[in-house]
Amino acid sequence: MDEWVVGEGRVISLEARPAQSNFWSIASPLLALAITVVIGALIFAAMGKDPIRGLGVFFWEPIKSTYALSELAVKATPLILIALGLAVCFRSNVWNIGAEGQYLIGALFGGGVALTADANTGGWIVVAILVAGVIGGMLWAGLVALLRDRFNANEILVSLMLVYVATYLLTYMVYGPWKDPQGFNFPQSKTFEKATQIPRLIDGLRMNIGLIIALASAALLWVFLFRTFRGYQLQVGGIAPAAARYAGFSSRGALWTALLISGGAAGLAGALEVAGPIGQLTPYVPAGYGFAAIIVAFVGRLHPVGIVFAAILMSMFYIGGELAQSRLGMPKSLTGVFQGLLLFALLACDTLVAYRLRVRT
Amino acid sequence: MTSKRALLAAGLSAALLATLVGCGKKEEPKKEAAAPAAAPAPAKPEPLKIAFAYVGPVGDGGWTFAHDNGRKAIEKEFGDKVVTSFVEKVPESADAERVIRDMASQGNKLIFGTTFGYMEPMLKVAADNKGVKFEHATGYKTAENMRTYDSRTYEGAYMAGVIAGKMTKTNTLGVVGSIPIPEVIRNINSFTMGAQTVNPKIKTKVVWVGEWFNPPKETEAATALINGGADVLMQNTDSSAVLQTAEKMGKRAFGWDSDMTAYGPKAHLGSAVINWGPYYVKATREALEGKWATGSAWWGVKEGAIEMVNVAADVPADTKAKIDEIKAGLKSGSFHPWTGPIVGQDGKEVLAKGVVADDKFLGGVKFYVKGVEGKVPGDK
Lengths: 361, 380
Fold this sequence. Notes:
Helix content of chain A is 68%, strand content 4%. By secondary structure, chain A is mostly helical. In chain A, strands 1-2-3 form a three-stranded antiparallel β-sheet.
């Protein structure tokens, strides 16, 4: 364990706790949030802004009205879906870093179906768009599983590199075959027909049924992880691969299951995004959700409920960062500062849940 | 040893905090001053709230920086009659609509979106906010409360070309392109045609980076062009990376969108700048006076929107005189860079002798002129 010499012969060291407090393993994310808030307030004060107003734009304005909540949902929905899938992977010890690519291929497949619609197409096409998204994401994650399974290729590298391939595929399509012929050569598809619009929950607000799908997925994942034998197998494989082998649980099966679930979820998020708030294919579909979701998954403790809250919190930071600019004239970097603070505080709290500081002389 | 690491970490976080504090203080006085100044005079009408959505950081030194100078021009012109605000680094994704909608809901009555990718989001928000005027840069879709504006950057590119044609020793120019839309292709062509007026042997090489703002990629592209023999570079991207690369490698280059002299004092041949101020002031005045109407504006040297500034001292006097002559011609309307004969890459004439290209022709330029090497991406 690390040791720090602090002078006068005193040594601070981290020592594993014999038993971890149940209370603190649940309370540590809340404590981390509290620490983030306190340091955040200090930053606002140091910059000469009213800390209450500063915190208000991050923690109150994003939830204060139906409209604000709807926008929060728009931002959080893809994060929840992708992070849920990633939680399955990470719990099974499968390191899928390429959710962004699976999200993109889902968007591409969903967008491809949406482009076939014309003025007479019925609302059923939404189902086809979402299914296409899931298939696209699964296909892209399936590539990772295949390469890992057949050639023992490192899934971290393969999944990450496939993100770039996916980006180039999207670029190729919007510069080439799917470019809007009326678009003055701008690299983007035509805007999708009305029928392809993912049904909204409330008229006039952008929040759509994706939110319901995401929340239902969280519930489903909870059942899968904690109430099914398959979910149990996956997790044993993740925590103790040797024990899983001894029990006869297939590690290949776990690899494929985890990646297909994760890819499908990311692909679904992609389809929901292009046929929802974006409404066309552009080179700007990759917005980093696939990477942000990795943080969401870990802040949410790889637990479905935790992930929902973590996604909401991350979205609040994104939106708060924009509001801090327009309301208070503060720099955009504040979003990154808050996200970094939260992660740092969470890691520090987790360390102290598992270890204690000892000062020896 | 470990304590050193802890010290370092503490030092770093202190430095971070100091930077943040520094940033905040710098911005603060102007912002705070603008808001309360209007408050204590209830007799005066409410100030017009104006908001800007920027695609890049204001500190990019190029595109967004130039727009922010335009915003400051509004503040300078109208003082306490307006309150301006901006949100920077707004992605051209689903996020843009939220940011722009929020601007409208915050009581902004005039909203500027300064990149092409905001077109669809702005249209959606404009449809729901009839009382708000929307100004979209570089797009082509309008509505009754949304109009477009752009600047004739090709005029700056043409003047840069004249200087480049004179200063090159290898007869090879290089352009770092962003996205192959007509505007950028037109600038590459204009740069080449300007150079050919003083040096018929000119060849222009192009490297596309596929993005507007990506300094590492722009640097890579500039390096590739220089290694390929180009000794004078221009860019149609948003950062100063190309100029900085030329400075490092002992070649020459131009500033683009804003005056970039400071980024490469030795390499700098001149900056083709966009001055958004005049248009922004005009739009604000129209909104204040209730005379705002939809349409599309395309401003150039004539309206004071395009300039070639800080031409390097070692550029010969006759070239400088030629630049002044071009400027005068553009101002009076007696000269247009796109006057035939213009010959395409394949040797076929695209514009007959004496014919002046109209804006429709210019808006659809998808071909390279003779002298540009390679082919337009996506072309068969």
